Amino acid sequence: MSFYSALGLDVSYFAALWHTFNVGHMLATDLDRICRHHGLSIADFNLLGALGIDRPRRLRPTDLAATLRVSQAALSARLLRLERNRLLVRSPATRDRRASFLHLTPEGVRLVKAIPSSATQHLSVNSRSVRLTSREMNTQLREAEATFRDVTPKEIEHYREQGWVKLKAFVPEAQVASLLAIAKAKMGEAGDRNAPPQAFSYFNPLTMRGLEHPVLGPVIKHCGHNARALLARKAPVGIRYFTDFFAAKLPSAKPALHGGNGSSDWHQDYAASASDRSGGMVFWLALTDLAPESGTMAFLSGSHRFGPMGHYTTYGEGNLLDAYPELLDHCAVTEPQSYEAGDATVHSNLCVHSAGLNRTCGPRWTYMVIVNPADACWNGGPADAFDTTGLRLHEVMDDGRFPVIG
Ligand SMILES: O=C(O)CCC(=O)C(=O)O
Description:
Number of domains: 2
Structural class: alpha+beta
CATH superfamily of the largest domain: q2cbj1_9rhob like domain
Radius of gyration: 24 Å
Number of helices: 12
Shape: globular
Helix content: 25-40%
Largest sheet: 6 strands, antiparallel
Distance between the termini: 48 Å
CATH architecture of the largest domain: Sandwich
Bound molecules: 2-oxoglutaric acid
Strand order of the largest sheet: 3-10-7-12-5-4
Strand content: 15-25%
CATH topology of the largest domain: Jelly Rolls
């Protein structure tokens, strides 16, 4: 304040202005949290809401950009994504065939109505918030921004049906920023400073075993808690932690020091899990915004129903689909996914998946957590992601290294 008054500005209204700004910020954070439960950001909701208003004339993308006060470039990517998610469609404008009008789909209309009604139930900002001191406001904001969200019934259903699921904003921004900073501090900005004990062609891993770590621990436990909901066993079976690691897929155009700049061809993880039963899953968390050209995950939806189909090293120069081409008659291949920082995908260790080359010029930063059902027993085999020393055949893997976390 004294800085501004020294400039000769009238600062008598600054405190009120700052307070109003903070209440607005709290409200936006709170609304964003609610939108994310429905798989949208607050900006997506504003966009759909603008299309939901009854107007004499439908909006074109240029009208919408002006209404929302955003650039055409920022709007185009968002429109494409919402169109792909079947929340809006375009129809050609009658006078100018090159232009298009935007319309909500029935699902878009449903969301535009559902979000305000869930806001009335779940909004934590209320009339009392306006009277909070700035210290109380900061505490509330920090808590709101750091809140982990749970998987929704719709996401659980998608996982059960398809063997994988996308979890928008699964880890809050603050934690993702800390994870990325830790990864870069240990692996370097280029993601290749560490030398893994076992180098992989498809990414450069750094195993963390971070359960006790102040930043990694809560993220791992968040995965464990939600893995239990995704597993959806009727028997009261918990979730056992197995490993967690940073994985930097390195640019394919540059030579790599320890591998890690290749693609991850179609495969399942099950054969590398050393477990006597299915139910294991991988949480794959994007630490930055990731577009398909950085080598993101694609899935063969529903392939988890077809049982184990071999270890990824057993197809010679080919991949799982060369050995089981008939899968393509039954299962749809998804596009490589796009992620915003904090989005995750989770795949069952029986779901066939792949990730392409990283065609960008920087590393693809991800953090992965691998879990199994707590009643899984060691099948006597080796495991790719963890050490099986000390495990006993046909007994649960309750070695102290693998605690139940969900
Ligand atoms: O991140 C990748 O490139 C592949 C990941 C993968 O195959 C897995 O998580 O099982």
